[in-house]
Amino acid sequence: MEHLRSSPADRPWTFLTNHARVLTEIARDPGARVRDIAAAIGITERAAQNIVTDLERAGYITRTRVGRRTRYSVDPSRPFRHPADADHPIEGLLSLFTDDHPPNRERPDGDLDRRAPSLPS
Known about the structure:
InterPro entries: HTH_MarR-typ, WH-like_DNA-bd_sf, WH_DNA-bd_sf
Region (Disordered): 69-121
Protein name: MarR family protein
Organism: Nonomuraea coxensis DSM 45129
Pfam families: MarR_2
CATH superfamily: Winged helix-like DNA-binding domain superfamily/Winged helix DNA-binding domain
CATH architecture: Orthogonal Bundle
């Protein structure tokens, strides 16, 4: 019996990790509940909670209690964790996935706006 091997094209993969996805969801909505974050990216609440804890321990996010809810803030100046990317802050990644108006958009006068997009606070 011949063993069937799947080709790399047949295996599902993505460019972003779940940690990056949780971080961008928090940047999009700092008041999001863990269950909403989990649902938005297709992981379990437990996995989302573990990732939030990882991000907080590493200094990428801060949690603040506001009544019965939790509000998050993201530190966009933190570097990427992989040594090959550690000289870049996560701000660029967050801008790419959280800004409604991407950089290099056309301004009303026809020129391109090359300013870096702002991040939600």
